[in-house]
Amino acid sequence: GILHEDLRLLLETSMPAKKKKALLGVADPKIGAAILEELGYQCQTGGVVAEILRGIRLHFHALVKGLTAQSASKAQLGLGHSYSRAKVKFNVNRVDNMIIQSISLLDQLDKDINTFSMRVREWYGYHFPELIRIVPENATYCRLAKLIGNRRELGEESLPALEEIVMDGAKAQAILDASRSSMGMDISPLDLINIESFSSRVLSLSEYRRELQEYLRSKMSQVAPSLSALIGEVVGARLISHAGSLTNLAKYPASTVQILGAEKALFRALKTRGNTPKYGLIFHSTFIGRAAAKNKGRISRYLANKCTIASRIDCFSDVPTSVFGDKLREQVEERLAFYETGEPPRKNLEVMKEAMVEASEVVAEVKRKQEKKEKKRKKREKRRLEALAAAAEEVENSVPEENDVGPKKKKKKKQQEPEAESEPEAASGPEENGLEEEAVPKKKRKVTAETDQEEEEKKKKKKKKKARDLEED
Protein backbone atom coordinates (compact mmCIF):
# COMPACT_ATOMS: atom_id res chain seq x y z
CA GLY A 1 0.00 0.00 0.00
CA ILE A 2 3.05 2.34 0.14
CA LEU A 3 4.10 3.88 -3.16
CA HIS A 4 7.78 3.73 -3.96
CA GLU A 5 9.54 7.08 -3.58
CA ASP A 6 11.16 6.95 -7.03
CA LEU A 7 7.81 6.33 -8.70
CA ARG A 8 6.19 9.07 -6.65
CA LEU A 9 8.91 11.56 -7.65
CA LEU A 10 8.61 10.58 -11.32
CA LEU A 11 4.85 11.06 -11.36
CA GLU A 12 4.93 14.37 -9.47
CA THR A 13 7.59 15.84 -11.77
CA SER A 14 6.11 14.58 -15.03
CA MET A 15 2.43 15.29 -14.26
CA PRO A 16 1.55 18.49 -12.36
CA ALA A 17 -1.38 18.65 -9.98
CA LYS A 18 -3.59 20.31 -12.61
CA LYS A 19 -3.59 17.15 -14.75
CA LYS A 20 -4.74 14.75 -12.08
CA LYS A 21 -7.78 13.85 -14.14
CA ALA A 22 -5.54 12.39 -16.87
CA LEU A 23 -5.57 8.61 -17.14
CA LEU A 24 -2.45 6.53 -16.50
CA GLY A 25 -2.02 3.07 -17.97
CA VAL A 26 -0.65 0.65 -15.34
CA ALA A 27 -0.20 -3.07 -15.78
CA ASP A 28 -0.56 -4.01 -12.09
CA PRO A 29 -3.88 -3.15 -10.39
CA LYS A 30 -2.13 -2.86 -7.00
CA ILE A 31 0.19 -0.17 -8.32
CA GLY A 32 -2.79 1.65 -9.83
CA ALA A 33 -4.65 1.56 -6.52
CA ALA A 34 -1.56 2.81 -4.67
CA ILE A 35 -1.08 5.69 -7.15
CA LEU A 36 -4.74 6.68 -6.83
CA GLU A 37 -4.58 6.57 -3.05
CA GLU A 38 -1.29 8.43 -2.64
CA LEU A 39 -1.32 10.98 -5.47
CA GLY A 40 -4.89 11.06 -6.73
CA TYR A 41 -4.12 10.15 -10.36
CA GLN A 42 -6.73 8.05 -12.15
CA CYS A 43 -5.20 4.78 -13.39
CA GLN A 44 -6.52 2.29 -15.91
CA THR A 45 -5.59 -1.38 -15.87
CA GLY A 46 -6.67 -4.14 -18.20
CA GLY A 47 -5.78 -6.15 -21.27
CA VAL A 48 -5.44 -3.10 -23.54
CA VAL A 49 -2.91 -1.46 -21.20
CA ALA A 50 -0.90 -4.68 -20.99
CA GLU A 51 -0.77 -4.96 -24.78
CA ILE A 52 0.29 -1.31 -25.13
CA LEU A 53 3.04 -1.75 -22.55
CA ARG A 54 4.19 -4.94 -24.24
CA GLY A 55 4.40 -3.14 -27.58
CA ILE A 56 6.33 -0.22 -26.01
CA ARG A 57 8.75 -2.67 -24.40
CA LEU A 58 9.20 -4.53 -27.70
CA HIS A 59 9.84 -1.41 -29.82
CA PHE A 60 11.55 0.65 -27.12
CA HIS A 61 14.85 0.86 -29.03
CA ALA A 62 12.99 2.29 -32.05
CA LEU A 63 11.06 4.84 -29.98
CA VAL A 64 14.13 6.19 -28.15
CA LYS A 65 16.85 7.79 -30.28
CA GLY A 66 20.36 6.38 -29.90
CA LEU A 67 19.20 3.17 -28.24
CA THR A 68 19.87 -0.08 -30.08
CA ALA A 69 18.25 -3.44 -29.50
CA GLN A 70 21.54 -4.85 -28.18
CA SER A 71 22.02 -2.08 -25.61
CA ALA A 72 18.35 -2.42 -24.56
CA SER A 73 18.81 -6.16 -23.97
CA LYS A 74 21.96 -5.47 -21.95
CA ALA A 75 20.08 -2.89 -19.88
CA GLN A 76 17.28 -5.38 -19.21
CA LEU A 77 19.82 -8.02 -18.18
CA GLY A 78 21.59 -5.60 -15.84
CA LEU A 79 18.27 -4.56 -14.35
CA GLY A 80 17.38 -8.20 -13.71
CA HIS A 81 20.73 -8.86 -12.03
CA SER A 82 20.51 -5.76 -9.84
CA TYR A 83 16.94 -6.65 -8.84
CA SER A 84 17.99 -10.18 -7.91
CA ARG A 85 20.96 -8.94 -5.89
CA ALA A 86 18.75 -6.49 -4.06
CA LYS A 87 16.10 -9.08 -3.23
CA VAL A 88 18.36 -11.99 -2.33
CA LYS A 89 20.40 -11.24 0.78
CA PHE A 90 23.27 -13.71 0.50
CA ASN A 91 25.00 -14.28 3.81
CA VAL A 92 28.03 -16.56 3.85
CA ASN A 93 27.48 -17.54 7.48
CA ARG A 94 23.93 -18.74 6.80
CA VAL A 95 24.57 -21.37 4.14
CA ASP A 96 22.61 -24.54 4.82
CA ASN A 97 24.46 -26.53 2.12
CA MET A 98 27.37 -27.01 4.54
CA ILE A 99 24.96 -28.46 7.11
CA ILE A 100 23.59 -30.94 4.58
CA GLN A 101 27.07 -32.13 3.61
CA SER A 102 28.35 -32.32 7.18
CA ILE A 103 25.39 -34.34 8.52
CA SER A 104 25.67 -36.75 5.57
CA LEU A 105 29.38 -37.17 6.24
CA LEU A 106 28.69 -37.62 9.95
CA ASP A 107 26.27 -40.49 9.27
CA GLN A 108 28.74 -42.09 6.87
CA LEU A 109 31.55 -41.77 9.42
CA ASP A 110 29.40 -43.46 12.07
CA LYS A 111 28.88 -46.46 9.78
CA ASP A 112 32.54 -46.63 8.76
CA ILE A 113 33.91 -46.30 12.31
CA ASN A 114 31.55 -49.03 13.51
CA THR A 115 32.62 -51.37 10.68
CA PHE A 116 36.33 -50.70 11.20
CA SER A 117 36.07 -51.14 14.96
CA MET A 118 34.44 -54.53 14.50
CA ARG A 119 37.27 -55.45 12.13
CA VAL A 120 39.87 -54.49 14.77
CA ARG A 121 38.06 -56.54 17.40
CA GLU A 122 37.94 -59.61 15.19
CA TRP A 123 41.55 -59.19 14.06
CA TYR A 124 43.05 -58.65 17.53
CA GLY A 125 40.62 -61.11 19.13
CA TYR A 126 42.62 -64.05 17.75
CA HIS A 127 45.53 -62.96 19.94
CA PHE A 128 43.68 -61.60 23.01
CA PRO A 129 40.02 -62.80 23.00
CA GLU A 130 39.35 -61.93 26.68
CA LEU A 131 39.77 -58.20 26.05
CA ILE A 132 36.39 -57.93 24.26
CA ARG A 133 34.45 -58.97 27.38
CA ILE A 134 36.35 -56.56 29.66
CA VAL A 135 36.19 -53.52 27.32
CA PRO A 136 33.12 -53.51 25.01
CA GLU A 137 33.54 -49.89 23.82
CA ASN A 138 34.96 -49.64 20.32
CA ALA A 139 37.18 -46.56 20.75
CA THR A 140 38.62 -47.80 24.07
CA TYR A 141 39.26 -51.24 22.57
CA CYS A 142 41.22 -49.71 19.67
CA ARG A 143 43.35 -47.65 22.09
CA LEU A 144 44.10 -50.73 24.20
CA ALA A 145 44.95 -52.83 21.14
CA LYS A 146 47.40 -50.14 20.05
CA LEU A 147 48.92 -49.89 23.55
CA ILE A 148 49.14 -53.58 24.49
CA GLY A 149 50.41 -55.09 21.24
CA ASN A 150 51.81 -58.47 22.23
CA ARG A 151 50.03 -59.53 25.42
CA ARG A 152 53.07 -61.55 26.59
CA GLU A 153 55.04 -58.31 26.95
CA LEU A 154 52.40 -56.72 29.21
CA GLY A 155 53.66 -56.24 32.78
CA GLU A 156 53.13 -54.31 35.98
CA GLU A 157 54.85 -51.25 34.53
CA SER A 158 52.01 -50.90 31.97
CA LEU A 159 49.32 -50.67 34.66
CA PRO A 160 49.28 -46.81 34.91
CA ALA A 161 48.91 -46.50 31.12
CA LEU A 162 46.02 -48.99 31.17
CA GLU A 163 44.31 -47.07 33.98
CA GLU A 164 44.68 -43.84 32.02
CA ILE A 165 42.85 -45.33 29.02
CA VAL A 166 40.22 -47.38 30.88
CA MET A 167 39.69 -44.79 33.69
CA ASP A 168 39.19 -47.67 36.14
CA GLY A 169 41.81 -49.43 38.26
CA ALA A 170 39.83 -52.67 38.60
CA LYS A 171 39.43 -52.98 34.83
CA ALA A 172 43.12 -52.31 34.28
CA GLN A 173 44.05 -55.04 36.77
CA ALA A 174 41.56 -57.44 35.11
CA ILE A 175 43.17 -56.78 31.70
CA LEU A 176 46.61 -57.50 33.18
CA ASP A 177 45.40 -60.74 34.80
CA ALA A 178 43.64 -61.84 31.62
CA SER A 179 46.78 -61.25 29.53
CA ARG A 180 48.73 -63.67 31.72
CA SER A 181 46.19 -66.49 31.39
CA SER A 182 44.82 -65.80 27.91
CA MET A 183 43.81 -68.59 25.53
CA GLY A 184 44.68 -66.58 22.42
CA MET A 185 47.10 -67.69 19.74
CA ASP A 186 50.54 -66.22 19.27
CA ILE A 187 50.94 -63.47 16.70
CA SER A 188 53.86 -62.37 14.58
CA PRO A 189 55.41 -58.88 14.86
CA LEU A 190 54.37 -58.04 11.28
CA ASP A 191 50.72 -58.79 12.09
CA LEU A 192 50.95 -56.65 15.22
CA ILE A 193 52.33 -53.73 13.19
CA ASN A 194 49.36 -53.93 10.82
CA ILE A 195 46.84 -54.18 13.67
CA GLU A 196 48.37 -51.15 15.45
CA SER A 197 48.41 -49.13 12.23
CA PHE A 198 44.76 -49.92 11.52
CA SER A 199 43.81 -49.10 15.13
CA SER A 200 45.50 -45.69 14.84
CA ARG A 201 43.52 -45.04 11.63
CA VAL A 202 40.25 -45.86 13.39
CA LEU A 203 41.18 -43.55 16.27
CA SER A 204 42.00 -40.70 13.86
CA LEU A 205 38.61 -41.19 12.20
CA SER A 206 36.91 -41.02 15.62
CA GLU A 207 38.79 -37.79 16.42
CA TYR A 208 37.76 -36.29 13.07
CA ARG A 209 34.15 -37.26 13.78
CA ARG A 210 34.25 -35.28 17.05
CA GLU A 211 35.68 -32.26 15.22
CA LEU A 212 32.99 -32.56 12.54
CA GLN A 213 30.28 -32.68 15.20
CA GLU A 214 31.63 -29.46 16.74
CA TYR A 215 31.65 -27.85 13.28
CA LEU A 216 28.04 -28.95 12.73
CA ARG A 217 27.04 -27.50 16.10
CA SER A 218 28.61 -24.13 15.26
CA LYS A 219 26.99 -24.01 11.80
CA MET A 220 23.57 -24.88 13.20
CA SER A 221 23.89 -22.11 15.81
CA GLN A 222 24.51 -19.66 12.93
CA VAL A 223 21.97 -20.95 10.39
CA ALA A 224 19.11 -22.35 12.50
CA PRO A 225 19.61 -21.45 16.19
CA SER A 226 15.94 -21.76 17.16
CA LEU A 227 15.54 -25.19 15.55
CA SER A 228 18.75 -26.50 17.12
CA ALA A 229 17.73 -25.14 20.54
CA LEU A 230 14.33 -26.83 20.23
CA ILE A 231 15.14 -30.28 18.89
CA GLY A 232 18.94 -30.54 18.91
CA GLU A 233 21.66 -29.94 16.33
CA VAL A 234 21.78 -33.44 14.85
CA VAL A 235 18.02 -33.94 14.46
CA GLY A 236 17.58 -30.41 13.12
CA ALA A 237 20.38 -30.94 10.61
CA ARG A 238 18.76 -34.21 9.49
CA LEU A 239 15.45 -32.41 8.95
CA ILE A 240 17.17 -29.71 6.85
CA SER A 241 19.08 -32.33 4.87
CA HIS A 242 15.96 -34.39 4.17
CA ALA A 243 13.97 -31.33 3.11
CA GLY A 244 16.79 -30.11 0.84
CA SER A 245 17.25 -26.69 2.43
CA LEU A 246 16.07 -24.58 5.34
CA THR A 247 13.72 -22.68 3.02
CA ASN A 248 12.05 -25.91 1.88
CA LEU A 249 11.68 -27.03 5.48
CA ALA A 250 10.08 -23.68 6.37
CA LYS A 251 7.56 -24.14 3.54
CA TYR A 252 6.44 -27.56 4.80
CA PRO A 253 3.30 -27.80 6.97
CA ALA A 254 3.52 -29.37 10.41
CA SER A 255 1.87 -32.60 9.22
CA THR A 256 4.66 -33.09 6.65
CA VAL A 257 7.42 -32.32 9.16
CA GLN A 258 5.89 -34.87 11.54
CA ILE A 259 6.34 -37.81 9.14
CA LEU A 260 9.44 -36.46 7.34
CA GLY A 261 11.74 -39.45 6.89
CA ALA A 262 8.97 -42.08 7.12
CA GLU A 263 7.76 -41.83 3.52
CA LYS A 264 8.20 -45.53 2.85
CA ALA A 265 6.05 -46.49 5.84
CA LEU A 266 3.46 -43.87 4.85
CA PHE A 267 3.06 -45.17 1.31
CA ARG A 268 2.99 -48.76 2.52
CA ALA A 269 0.22 -47.84 4.97
CA LEU A 270 -1.73 -46.05 2.25
CA LYS A 271 -1.35 -49.03 -0.07
CA THR A 272 -2.39 -51.62 2.51
CA ARG A 273 -4.94 -49.28 4.16
CA GLY A 274 -3.20 -49.66 7.50
CA ASN A 275 -2.25 -47.18 10.20
CA THR A 276 -0.11 -44.29 9.00
CA PRO A 277 3.16 -43.55 10.86
CA LYS A 278 3.07 -41.11 13.76
CA TYR A 279 6.62 -39.77 13.45
CA GLY A 280 9.64 -39.80 11.19
CA LEU A 281 13.00 -38.17 11.90
CA ILE A 282 11.69 -36.36 14.97
CA PHE A 283 11.45 -39.75 16.70
CA HIS A 284 15.16 -39.32 17.60
CA SER A 285 14.26 -36.34 19.75
CA THR A 286 14.32 -36.82 23.52
CA PHE A 287 10.75 -35.59 23.95
CA ILE A 288 9.15 -38.56 22.20
CA GLY A 289 11.31 -41.01 24.13
CA ARG A 290 10.25 -39.44 27.44
CA ALA A 291 6.54 -39.51 26.62
CA ALA A 292 4.31 -42.44 27.52
CA ALA A 293 3.25 -44.90 24.82
CA LYS A 294 -0.26 -43.50 24.59
CA ASN A 295 1.02 -39.91 24.32
CA LYS A 296 3.78 -40.44 21.69
CA GLY A 297 1.52 -39.51 18.78
CA ARG A 298 0.22 -36.39 20.52
CA ILE A 299 3.63 -35.12 21.55
CA SER A 300 5.04 -35.83 18.07
CA ARG A 301 2.26 -33.76 16.51
CA TYR A 302 2.88 -30.93 18.97
CA LEU A 303 6.66 -31.10 18.46
CA ALA A 304 6.27 -31.00 14.65
CA ASN A 305 4.15 -27.87 15.02
CA LYS A 306 6.86 -26.15 17.09
CA CYS A 307 9.60 -27.30 14.68
CA THR A 308 7.74 -25.67 11.80
CA ILE A 309 7.47 -22.38 13.70
CA ALA A 310 11.17 -22.49 14.64
CA SER A 311 12.31 -23.23 11.07
CA ARG A 312 10.24 -20.33 9.70
CA ILE A 313 11.64 -17.94 12.30
CA ASP A 314 15.21 -19.03 11.44
CA CYS A 315 14.63 -18.79 7.71
CA PHE A 316 12.97 -15.39 7.48
CA SER A 317 14.52 -13.41 10.36
CA ASP A 318 17.30 -10.93 9.63
CA VAL A 319 19.21 -11.59 12.87
CA PRO A 320 18.50 -15.20 13.96
CA THR A 321 18.61 -15.87 17.70
CA SER A 322 17.96 -18.90 19.89
CA VAL A 323 15.42 -17.07 22.09
CA PHE A 324 12.39 -18.43 20.26
CA GLY A 325 13.83 -21.94 20.26
CA ASP A 326 14.31 -21.85 24.03
CA LYS A 327 10.74 -20.63 24.56
CA LEU A 328 9.33 -23.29 22.23
CA ARG A 329 11.32 -25.93 24.08
CA GLU A 330 9.81 -24.74 27.36
CA GLN A 331 6.36 -25.09 25.79
CA VAL A 332 7.06 -28.70 24.78
CA GLU A 333 8.31 -29.45 28.30
CA GLU A 334 5.13 -27.95 29.76
CA ARG A 335 3.01 -30.04 27.37
CA LEU A 336 4.84 -33.20 28.50
CA ALA A 337 4.16 -32.28 32.11
CA PHE A 338 0.50 -31.66 31.20
CA TYR A 339 0.20 -35.19 29.75
CA GLU A 340 1.69 -36.70 32.91
CA THR A 341 0.32 -34.53 35.75
CA GLY A 342 -2.54 -32.58 34.18
CA GLU A 343 -1.01 -29.18 35.00
CA PRO A 344 -2.24 -26.71 32.35
CA PRO A 345 0.57 -25.12 30.27
CA ARG A 346 0.93 -21.43 29.47
CA LYS A 347 -0.85 -19.98 26.48
CA ASN A 348 1.08 -19.55 23.27
CA LEU A 349 0.34 -15.80 23.17
CA GLU A 350 1.96 -15.16 26.54
CA VAL A 351 5.07 -17.16 25.65
CA MET A 352 5.49 -15.41 22.30
CA LYS A 353 5.16 -11.96 23.92
CA GLU A 354 7.96 -12.82 26.33
CA ALA A 355 10.04 -14.19 23.46
CA MET A 356 9.52 -11.02 21.41
CA VAL A 357 10.75 -8.82 24.26
CA GLU A 358 13.85 -10.95 24.87
CA ALA A 359 14.57 -11.31 21.16
CA SER A 360 14.41 -7.54 20.61
CA GLU A 361 16.98 -7.05 23.38
CA VAL A 362 19.27 -9.72 21.93
CA VAL A 363 18.97 -8.30 18.41
CA ALA A 364 19.77 -4.80 19.68
CA GLU A 365 22.87 -6.13 21.45
CA VAL A 366 23.98 -8.01 18.31
CA LYS A 367 23.50 -4.90 16.20
CA ARG A 368 25.54 -2.83 18.66
CA LYS A 369 28.36 -5.36 18.46
CA GLN A 370 28.19 -5.35 14.68
CA GLU A 371 28.34 -1.56 14.62
CA LYS A 372 31.39 -1.59 16.91
CA LYS A 373 33.10 -4.12 14.67
CA GLU A 374 32.28 -2.03 11.62
CA LYS A 375 33.68 1.11 13.28
CA LYS A 376 36.87 -0.70 14.23
CA ARG A 377 37.21 -2.04 10.71
CA LYS A 378 36.75 1.44 9.25
CA LYS A 379 39.35 2.86 11.66
CA ARG A 380 41.83 0.16 10.67
CA GLU A 381 41.16 0.83 7.00
CA LYS A 382 41.59 4.57 7.53
CA ARG A 383 44.90 4.07 9.35
CA ARG A 384 46.11 1.76 6.60
CA LEU A 385 45.23 4.31 3.92
CA GLU A 386 46.95 7.08 5.89
CA ALA A 387 50.07 4.95 6.27
CA LEU A 388 50.08 4.22 2.54
CA ALA A 389 49.64 7.91 1.75
CA ALA A 390 52.49 8.86 4.12
CA ALA A 391 54.75 6.25 2.56
CA ALA A 392 53.92 7.54 -0.91
CA GLU A 393 54.73 11.11 0.17
CA GLU A 394 58.07 10.01 1.61
CA VAL A 395 58.94 8.26 -1.65
CA GLU A 396 57.98 11.35 -3.65
CA ASN A 397 60.09 13.59 -1.38
CA SER A 398 63.11 11.29 -1.47
CA VAL A 399 63.22 11.15 -5.29
CA PRO A 400 63.68 14.96 -5.78
CA GLU A 401 66.37 15.06 -3.08
CA GLU A 402 68.43 12.53 -5.01
CA ASN A 403 67.93 14.44 -8.23
CA ASP A 404 68.78 17.83 -6.64
CA VAL A 405 72.31 16.93 -5.50
CA GLY A 406 73.90 18.97 -8.34
CA PRO A 407 71.82 22.10 -7.87
CA LYS A 408 72.52 22.11 -4.12
CA LYS A 409 76.25 22.19 -4.77
CA LYS A 410 75.75 25.04 -7.18
CA LYS A 411 73.84 26.96 -4.53
CA LYS A 412 76.71 26.49 -2.12
CA LYS A 413 79.13 27.93 -4.65
CA LYS A 414 76.82 30.85 -5.20
CA GLN A 415 76.70 31.42 -1.47
CA GLN A 416 80.51 31.42 -1.31
CA GLU A 417 80.81 34.03 -4.04
CA PRO A 418 78.98 36.74 -2.10
CA GLU A 419 81.18 35.99 0.90
CA ALA A 420 84.25 36.62 -1.23
CA GLU A 421 82.70 39.87 -2.43
CA SER A 422 82.06 40.96 1.14
CA GLU A 423 85.80 40.94 1.91
CA PRO A 424 87.61 44.28 2.30
CA GLU A 425 87.86 46.34 -0.83
CA ALA A 426 91.59 46.70 -0.28
CA ALA A 427 92.05 43.28 -1.89
CA SER A 428 94.23 43.25 -4.98
CA GLY A 429 92.90 42.93 -8.47
CA PRO A 430 93.99 39.36 -9.13
CA GLU A 431 91.94 38.23 -6.13
CA GLU A 432 88.82 39.80 -7.63
CA ASN A 433 89.45 38.01 -10.92
CA GLY A 434 89.31 34.68 -9.19
CA LEU A 435 93.05 34.07 -8.70
CA GLU A 436 92.36 33.50 -5.02
CA GLU A 437 90.64 30.27 -5.83
CA GLU A 438 93.91 28.95 -7.26
CA ALA A 439 95.84 29.84 -4.09
CA VAL A 440 94.02 27.30 -1.99
CA PRO A 441 95.06 24.31 -4.09
CA LYS A 442 98.71 25.56 -4.09
CA LYS A 443 98.78 25.61 -0.29
CA LYS A 444 97.32 22.14 -0.28
CA ARG A 445 100.03 20.99 -2.67
CA LYS A 446 102.77 22.48 -0.42
CA VAL A 447 101.34 20.70 2.63
CA THR A 448 101.18 17.38 0.82
CA ALA A 449 104.78 17.83 -0.46
CA GLU A 450 106.03 18.53 3.08
CA THR A 451 104.26 15.45 4.44
CA ASP A 452 105.83 13.32 1.68
CA GLN A 453 109.32 14.60 2.53
CA GLU A 454 108.80 13.81 6.23
CA GLU A 455 107.66 10.27 5.41
CA GLU A 456 110.73 9.73 3.19
CA GLU A 457 113.06 11.00 5.95
CA LYS A 458 111.41 8.64 8.43
CA LYS A 459 111.91 5.74 6.04
CA LYS A 460 115.63 6.64 5.59
CA LYS A 461 116.14 6.80 9.36
CA LYS A 462 114.55 3.37 9.75
CA LYS A 463 116.85 1.93 7.07
CA LYS A 464 119.93 3.43 8.78
CA LYS A 465 118.87 1.94 12.13
CA LYS A 466 118.45 -1.47 10.55
CA ALA A 467 121.89 -1.21 8.91
CA ARG A 468 123.52 -0.26 12.26
CA ASP A 469 121.84 -3.14 14.00
CA LEU A 470 123.11 -5.54 11.35
CA GLU A 471 126.67 -4.17 11.64
CA GLU A 472 126.60 -4.57 15.42
CA ASP A 473 125.40 -8.15 15.10
Automatic annotation (TrEMBL):
<feature type="compositionally biased region" description="Acidic residues">
    <location>
        <begin position="393"/>
        <end position="404"/>
    </location>
</feature>
<dbReference type="GO" id="GO:0031428">
    <property type="term" value="C:box C/D methylation guide snoRNP complex"/>
</dbReference>
<comment type="subunit">
    <text>Part of a large pre-ribosomal ribonucleoprotein (RNP) complex, that consists of at least 62 ribosomal proteins, 45 nonribosomal proteins and both pre-rRNA and mature rRNA species. Within this complex directly interacts with TCOF1 in an RNA-independent manner. Core component of box C/D small nucleolar ribonucleoprotein (snoRNP) particles; the core proteins SNU13, NOP56, NOP58 and FBL or FBLL1 assemble stepwise onto the snoRNA. Interacts with NOP1 and NOP58. Interacts with NUFIP1, RUVBL1 and RUVBL2; RUVBL1:RUVBL2 seem to bridge the association of NOP56 with NUFIP1.</text>
</comment>
<keyword id="KW-0690">Ribosome biogenesis</keyword>
<dbReference type="InterPro" id="IPR045056">
    <property type="entry name" value="Nop56/Nop58"/>
</dbReference>
<dbReference type="GO" id="GO:0032040">
    <property type="term" value="C:small-subunit processome"/>
</dbReference>
<dbReference type="Pfam" id="PF01798">
    <property type="entry name" value="Nop"/>
</dbReference>
<comment type="similarity">
    <text>Belongs to the NOP5/NOP56 family.</text>
</comment>
<dbReference type="InterPro" id="IPR036070">
    <property type="entry name" value="Nop_dom_sf"/>
</dbReference>
<comment type="function">
    <text>Involved in the early to middle stages of 60S ribosomal subunit biogenesis. Required for the biogenesis of box C/D snoRNAs such U3, U8 and U14 snoRNAs. Part of the small subunit (SSU) processome, first precursor of the small eukaryotic ribosomal subunit. During the assembly of the SSU processome in the nucleolus, many ribosome biogenesis factors, an RNA chaperone and ribosomal proteins associate with the nascent pre-rRNA and work in concert to generate RNA folding, modifications, rearrangements and cleavage as well as targeted degradation of pre-ribosomal RNA by the RNA exosome.</text>
</comment>
<protein>
    <recommendedName>
        <fullName>Nucleolar protein 56</fullName>
    </recommendedName>
</protein>
<dbReference type="GO" id="GO:0042254">
    <property type="term" value="P:ribosome biogenesis"/>
</dbReference>
<feature type="domain" description="Nop">
    <location>
        <begin position="223"/>
        <end position="341"/>
    </location>
</feature>
<dbReference type="InterPro" id="IPR042239">
    <property type="entry name" value="Nop_C"/>
</dbReference>
<dbReference type="InterPro" id="IPR002687">
    <property type="entry name" value="Nop_dom"/>
</dbReference>
<feature type="region of interest" description="Disordered">
    <location>
        <begin position="390"/>
        <end position="473"/>
    </location>
</feature>
<dbReference type="GO" id="GO:0030515">
    <property type="term" value="F:snoRNA binding"/>
</dbReference>
<keyword id="KW-0539">Nucleus</keyword>
<dbReference type="InterPro" id="IPR012976">
    <property type="entry name" value="NOSIC"/>
</dbReference>
